[in-house]
# Entry
Amino acid sequence: MASVRAIAAQLNVSPATVSRVLNNHPDVDEATRERVLARINELGYSPRIGRRITNVIALAYPDEPVRSEYGSFEPALLSGIMRGLEEPQFDLKLLNIRRDKAPNETYTQFFIRKGIRGVILRCFRNNRPTICKIATERFPAIVVADAFDEPGVNFLRADSYPSSRQAVEHLISLGHRRIALAMHNVPDSDHADRRRAYDDALFCAGLPVDPALVIELPASLSSGEQVLDTMTGLDDPATAIFATNPMTTLGIMRRAQEKGIDVPKQLSVVGVDDSDVRTHIWPRLSAVTQDASALGMEAARWLTEVIASGKTAASCRRTIDTVFEVNGTTGPAPQRQARRRQDRGRVTTGDAEKAD
Amino acid sequence: MASVRAIAAQLNVSPATVSRVLNNHPDVDEATRERVLARINELGYSPRIGRRITNVIALAYPDEPVRSEYGSFEPALLSGIMRGLEEPQFDLKLLNIRRDKAPNETYTQFFIRKGIRGVILRCFRNNRPTICKIATERFPAIVVADAFDEPGVNFLRADSYPSSRQAVEHLISLGHRRIALAMHNVPDSDHADRRRAYDDALFCAGLPVDPALVIELPASLSSGEQVLDTMTGLDDPATAIFATNPMTTLGIMRRAQEKGIDVPKQLSVVGVDDSDVRTHIWPRLSAVTQDASALGMEAARWLTEVIASGKTAASCRRTIDTVFEVNGTTGPAPQRQARRRQDRGRVTTGDAEKAD
DNA sequence: CATGCAAGTGAAACAGTTCCAGCCGGGCAT
DNA sequence: ATGCCCGGCTGGAACTGTTTCACTTGCATG
# Structure
């Protein structure tokens, strides 16, 4: 609605000045800049090319672009977003906030300058304050794959509590009593859900939560190895591990195979999978699966809908389901005397068939 | 250089008409459209917003956006592109050609309409003609991860011939004589390189190429399983497999572990890895590795350089190196009598330590 | 005190797109 | 035959946003 000239007229400045503010040019008086920004926030503004409004949204990363450290979550998410943008005919830009945003401009300013009308945000380690800031500026935005208590922050996430709880209960029903939990060492809502599911499942089964069985580490292969070493090395070792992120899970599996620990005969493993990694290895991972592609598609649809309808007050705090999928890495708890074999090489497992 | 009004003046039409042609509006006479397009191709054209030229390039997919079927090649590539765009201050758009391009517009028209000044192209199954078409239109473009004989097509790829040959020679030096080759079933230059390397390495070692040991299948996990079943089921089975794509390699490993075939004691496997998948499993894959991130970064740099300098005649037919990395899936060829054990369950491998 | 420099601003020029009015030719009813 | 209407096509004008250039103003300095 509001054009550069309209805003300029209201404030008794020239369109040139408004444009300069929008593009973060240095030579504009601080007071003037404030006035213009205030009015823009008040009236709203959509970037245009000529008379046409630009139908572009962005997927914004707080820092490093498109890390592949979370397995194939990112491509699955991107693929979903592209599908979600198909029908409303929007384009997608990729943004690196740290790199492109000038320190002295607001987020709204930054996004307008980049010619986008809305933004899908990825939430990582330390950028929760950033996201809250963006929310208070009321620029159309939605966070994927994380949850926020702060009002005004829109998000779409997969709630892994139910299926995480199913996972732990599944392990309990298989006779496991020493179930380890390998957590991510930075708190986000997903991992909090999984922690709660673990606690609740144990509590309801009358099992204690042993602090020695809970470990917090970065999401990485080597963390997984450390988890396996720690949990099988205890005096009363774990017979099952629930790992709350994909890379740690892979690390656990890799280390178990390296040490010749038979999964699932000697140790059961439940992981979390964002994409199809669980099927890439043998045995196929029993895992809590979240559909990153669906997450992306839904987020894109919500955002474009909000933009198109102009309902800036719309709020999204949606949750989609995750699924616990039983595959080959979970089995009955081993007999007590069979545990504690510590040879570092492969173990004889010729009795495999009989045990099934 | 050429603006809408300049072109309009040269052709005695109005700027409105030129704009309509550029945006593929239906209500413009076919003859007029042709004239305008011809002049635009002649003079060149860069999309602008107001007086500013837009520094945006696109990563264009022929069809489905950002398939994750090639493992984490895509995120690694994207990450590299973003890094490559950092210094020249360009933005990146994601484009799905099939979805967004109108059938009756040229590629140049399409890209201009999307406001981009250059494009990085992904080459898949059937879009080689598309890419050649784009090249003849002379819009700034570069293909990543494939090679073209056609002049005018710019590309940047990783040459996997030397390291593929190293890989096969490595297997030969380990005593393998029955080395299978699992190829992708659609021809592209990468896979052609690997085929040549296989043939040459065998030939130079005085070994015959047995057609029974060469198989062409889609890049997928199930293909890998089929490869393993076929190659170990021969009367004179393979003792090593070279798989020319990541997913097939994973399928082979998965199936080998499922059948209890010990890699590398009973069977050696060499794969190809675009990212870090080779380290995600145990044993770590011996693999020909290509740095998708470097590919993306170099492509982005070349493209932005061409755009900035205006050297539309510039040509890029570069190749970066791949590396053959020896990890845990390659070992000495098994003794002849030890082969042909066909029990479907796990095999006793208690003598593992001694063999080392 | 005059001069010069830097900051800040606006008018104008210029970039692209769309709206609206008009032209023109063909089809159709009277 | 003639008048009318309608749709294809076009251009002018209006309206986007951005940049260039000239100008004012205030402050420091010779």
Notes: Residues 13-17, 20, 27-29, 32, 48-52 of chain B lie near DNA strand D (CB under 10 Å from a C1'). Chain B touches chain A through 55 residues (CB under 8 Å). Residues 292-309 of chain B form the longest helix (18 residues). Residues 338-356 of chain B have pLDDT under 50 and may be disordered.
